[in-house]
Amino acid sequence: MSAKIKDVAARAGVSTTTVSRVLNGGKYVREDLRIRVLRAIEELGYAPSRIARSLVRNKTNLLGVIVPDLTSSFYSTILSSIEETAAKNGYNLLVCNISEDIDKEYKYLQIFKEMRAEGVIIMHEKMNEEIREFIGRMEIPLIFSSVKPLNQSFISVIVDDYAAAYDATAYLIGLGHQSIGFIGGDMRDVTSGQNRYLGYCNALKDHGIGYIHELVRFGDYKVKSGYDLMGELLRSKRQPTAVFAVSDDMAIGAVNCLADHGLRVPGDISVMGFDGSQMTELVRPRITSMEQPIHRMGKVTVETLLRLIEGDVLKNGDIILDHKLEERESCRKI
Amino acid sequence: MSAKIKDVAARAGVSTTTVSRVLNGGKYVREDLRIRVLRAIEELGYAPSRIARSLVRNKTNLLGVIVPDLTSSFYSTILSSIEETAAKNGYNLLVCNISEDIDKEYKYLQIFKEMRAEGVIIMHEKMNEEIREFIGRMEIPLIFSSVKPLNQSFISVIVDDYAAAYDATAYLIGLGHQSIGFIGGDMRDVTSGQNRYLGYCNALKDHGIGYIHELVRFGDYKVKSGYDLMGELLRSKRQPTAVFAVSDDMAIGAVNCLADHGLRVPGDISVMGFDGSQMTELVRPRITSMEQPIHRMGKVTVETLLRLIEGDVLKNGDIILDHKLEERESCRKI
Predict the structure, then answer these.
(1) Per-residue pLDDT for B189 more than 70?
(2) Choosing a second label site near B4 at 20 to 30 A (CA), which of A121, B126, B127, B280?
(3) Lowest mean pLDDT among A99-113, B68-82, B302-316
(4) Do A331 and A271 contact (CB within 8 A), yes or no?
(5) Is residue B56 scored above 60 in pLDDT?
(6) What distance in Å separates residue B304's CA from the closest CA in chain A?
(7) Residue A76 burial (C-beta neighbours within 10 Å; 0-12, 13-18, 19+)
(8) Residues of chain A predicted below pLDDT 50
(9) To 10 degrees, the CA torsion angle through B12, B18, B20, B21?
(10) Which long-range contacts (CB under 8 A, 24 or more apart) does A52-60 make?
(11) Nearest CB to B83; choose among A70, A83, A223
């Protein structure tokens, strides 16, 4: 049986309150008592449990993280960066994979509160009324990472999705493409999906290229959806010479679909991705992508959250990180 | 300010001990007192914090998980299955990504103990004396998943690495290959690396094929290492007609290396993987692989750990799950 705080108090001849004060580095403890307590701690080999200390200090050093899908390369990479930065600052992660299930998200937010998580990171942008209301009264610093809930006022660490998609489309236009297919994301309640679509539309418009409804499809950011939507584009009357997919996973699905149809990338069709996940380097051809700084995004997310936890008052709004075109092998000049 | 246990006690006219007993479903509480406490709880809207309850009950519902590398498709998939099974049973995960850093593993095991994790899952097989000794006195149920530490007595949920590698090699021999390259894993302190190598060696021997030292290389399970080692094999005098890589990531690296040298898979060289990660389906050609049942492995790991937590006494040893050959497009008959 290991020593308890009362054993320490008895041995030092002080009250348990005094022991607590010493443990928590509090002031107002007489120096001779402090020394007696420290000596008793050493003699008894007493180690206060983190959970007991957390009750005293209201410090748990826990951050709750909501991940939409752990098996996605994008989310596992950003989570790995979040974990790294948290660990460096003495924080541990409670990780919850919600598999895009919004009811699970609500349940986990409640658990984070019960566990006294000191901060919460959400990487899922869809919301319902229940979650919105719960977050409003949760009283725990909260930050969104890589996503931004529609019409809400929170702190979000993101790229400028509109500008990034605009730049990606303009890049394809610069390569000589006039017929550019678009494999978009979710348009319901999802700002990134909407902003990437608007970026595509306006880049076409600003370059005097007409919008062709048949060349535009919407999916769910996953490989299978990119594969299926590319198949639809191939069956349409107006075939594109280039396709812009708003996630690397969808771009890989599109490339696989083209390969399975005996078409070469970029020889027959150029394909451009979005995200900068490690997958872009693992497939052939390597995927040219409009990249988010994934590692930096995780780091900035945790650093900002820790400032909130320490009591800094930050205005709600977006923390915008730079996007960057990474030219690889999947797009060509025509 | 929310209600505290002493407010409940005051309102019900009982001691805080009685309130605790009621909350924890303890016996020995008079029925009329129990009703008064429950009524006071309802009237005050009292919700005991999970952390406070955990001190009373010694239940935290936390499982600590050590992951070697979150950005690997294999580990993120098994983690997602572990999370799913834990959540179904009311447990939350403390996830620690150690990036193969054994000092970080030691630190995290200490944190798991301080946080009163009820169980620990380790997916990293290398150990040092410090960790071995700490685990020995940790007094928390512990299980290894997908790995088995060398010469140690623990419970490990794994496949039979020897048999799986033997079967993979025999499959390539059955396709007519006599010159089979081997891209192996880590051989220092790692049973899976050693057993997969022995499976390869003995399959060759049992089929009367001589072992050729030049065709055998060892790496670290990652894509880059598969790429580099395939490059070495291509530069050797005896070129293989097939290569068996002991991870899907290394197999993908090998396929990429061959593509970058203008060689076709399986036209020029067949490549076989190991693991059954989702990556096998995302690349072209799709990778034929000796698969571990990754999802089931996560599920069995948690279910077994929960039995230990509930007090079941299980013998140390291996829980062996079935491996399975998944034929895709990267191997051909010659």
Answers:
(1) no
(2) A121
(3) A99-113
(4) yes
(5) no
(6) 21
(7) buried
(8) 1
(9) -130
(10) A52/A5, A52/B55, A53/A23, A53/A24, A54/A116, A54/B51, A55/B51, A55/B52, A55/B55, A56/A20, A56/A23, A56/A24, A57/A24, A58/A116, A59/A118, A60/A115, A60/A116, A60/A117, A60/A118, A60/B51
(11) A70
Q: Give pLDDT, residue A275.
A: 96
* Residues on chain A touching B76 (C-beta within 8 angstroms): 70-71, 76
A284 and B284 within 8 Å at the Cβ level: the answer is yes
- Report the mean per-residue pLDDT for chain B: 89
Contact B79 A70 (CB under 8 A): yes
Q: What is the pLDDT of residue A57?
A: 57
Query: Which among B83, B116, B259 has CB closest to A97?
Result: B83
d(CA B165, CA B177): 15
- The more confident residue out of B300 and B110 is B300
The residue of chain A nearest to residue B54, with distances taken between CA atoms, is A51
Reading the block at residue A285, the tokens are 């051809």
Q: Tell me the mean pLDDT in the region B138-149.
A: 92
What confidence score (pLDDT) does residue A71 get? 84
Other C-beta atoms within 10 Å of B26: how many? Answer: 14
Pick among A66, A70, A83 to test the B interface (most B CBs inside 10 A): A70
Going by the DSSP 8-state scheme, the letter that residue B177 receives in this structure is: -
Structure confidence at residue B187 (pLDDT): 80
Nearest CB neighbour to B51, from listed A115, A260, A283: A115
B311 burial type by CB count under 10 A (0-12 exposed, 13-18 middle, 19+ buried): exposed
| Whole-number Å distance between alpha carbons of B291 and A103 | 33
Contacts of A114 in chain B (CB under 8 A): 47, 49-51
Residues in B closer than 8 angstroms to A256, CB to CB, are 282, 284
Which among A60, A76, A259 has the least Cβ separation from residue B76?
A76
- Considering only CB atoms, B76 lies closest to which of A49, A70, A279, namely A70
Dump pLDDT digits (tens) for B250-277: 999 999 999 999 999 999 999 999 999 9
B contacts of A284 (beta carbons < 8 Å): 255-256, 259-260, 283-284
Structural domains in chain B, CATH included, are 5-57 (1.10.260.40), 62-159+294-322 (3.40.50.2300), 161-292 (3.40.50.2300)
Per-residue tokens: B109: 């095991």
Structure tokens at A280: 């872009």
pTM over 0.95: no
State residue A1's pLDDT score: 42
CA dist A328 and B15 (Å) reads 71
Q: Output the six-digit token pair for B267.
A: 């036209």
pLDDT at A281: 92
Higher pLDDT: B103 or B293? It is B293
Q: What is the ipTM of this complex?
A: 0.77
Residue B301 has pLDDT above 80, yes or no: yes
Chain A contact probe: residue of B70, B77, B89, B295 with most A CBs at under 10 A: B70
Contact B278 A71 (CB under 8 A): yes
Rg (chain B; Cα; Å): 26
